[in-house]
Amino acid sequence: MTLETLWFIIIGVLWTGYFVLEGFDFGVGMSLPLLGKGKDKEDTDKRRRVLLNTIGPFWDGNEVWLLTAGGATFAAFPAWYGTMFSGFYLALLLILVALIVRNMGFEYRHKRDSDAWRRGWDLCIIIGSVLPPLLLGVALTNIVHGVPITRDVHNEYIFTGNLFTLLNPISLLGGFVFVGLSLTHGFHFIALKTTDEIRARSRALATRVGLVTAVLAVVLLLWVGIEHGKVSSWITTAIAAVALLAAIWFNLKGKEGLAFIGSTVTWAMAVATYFLALYPNVMPSSTDSKWDLTVSEAASSHLTLQIMTGAAVVFTPIAIAYTAWNYWVFRRRISVDHIPPAVDPLKGVHSGEQVELR
Question: Which of 31, 106, 290, 295 is at 20 to 30 A from 6, Cα to Cα?
């Protein structure tokens, strides 16, 4: 196996890690209006705080996988990175803005005891949880489907389409599947981390959303397979479909841990299907196959890939060990009973009292 192929696989693994981990916290963010409605204002706020506390120790660590995947693509395949960003610039900018606004919601929501303040940040969290998987689904499906790229007089790859070129039926289907998988994965995680009514409602919604997502996902993966399928990608497609159906069945039986593992395998096999269908290209051209950008053409120098491989061997086990430790420490279930009354950190400022600065 060449270093170019090895790094293509590593980038696929990094995207898998990102969607498995960030997928469920996107789902938790989307679930606020579905699972966060209580009997009164105080109950609603406590339910939403329970939901957000399930991902409190994890969401920022999960985003490291996106940064690592992007950084590895830039270093290992600069031509792929440059062509992708020139074509998907607006979509990637929207993803970045959505992630920033969502993260601000996590950090600022509890800074004021005000209904309007919380509603505003809740809306930011919900929108910031829907847009990234939707746009990443559209972008990655376009990459597998093929985008209009050619070469200029300097032999550089250039994107010749526009935003509307990217909004084709298969890519939009990809976006909806990524949102549905994130929401189903998130419901499984919430059921695994909570008790009482939130847990029961999460399981019920996981079944309904999971069944709709399963139908859409099968159509999407069959579409990808018909266009670019290989024996290996058909095998991963079949495993993805079986894993999602198994997750729904385990959820119905109340085996929440197995349901979460099922949706985890579904994400892993769906991403594997995309990368297997893509190889040996990193961006097939819909204009003419002679403009396909291949793994070898997009790769950095051999020395660069050797240095990156050495760094990955040292730091990857450390990152995995820290992530596993973090999930083990915060493994307990939480409920509304664990949530203290809301406080306003600026109450003393408004009343003229002296506030201790820390």
Answer: 290
- HEC letters along 289-339: HHHCEEHHHHCCCHHHHHHHHHHHHHHHHHHHHHHHHHHHHCCCCECHHHC
| Cα(279)–Cα(298) distance, integer angstroms | 12
Distance (Å, rounded) from C-alpha 348 to C-alpha 354? 6
Report the number of distinct structural domains present in the chain: 1
Kindly state whether residue 157 falls inside one of the protein's structural domains. Answer: yes
Confidence at 64, pLDDT banded by 50, 70, 90? confident
Task: Map tokens 């990217």 to a residue.
Answer: 166
CA gap 260, 185 in Å, rounded: 7
Dihedral sign of CA atoms 158, 91, 74, 289 in order: negative
Give the domain range for residue 329.
Answer: 3-340
Helix, strand counts (H, E) of the chain = 15, 4
- The answer to whether 146 touches 284, Cβ cutoff 8 Å, is yes
The whole-model pTM stands at: 0.90
CA atoms within 13 A on the CB side of 166: 25
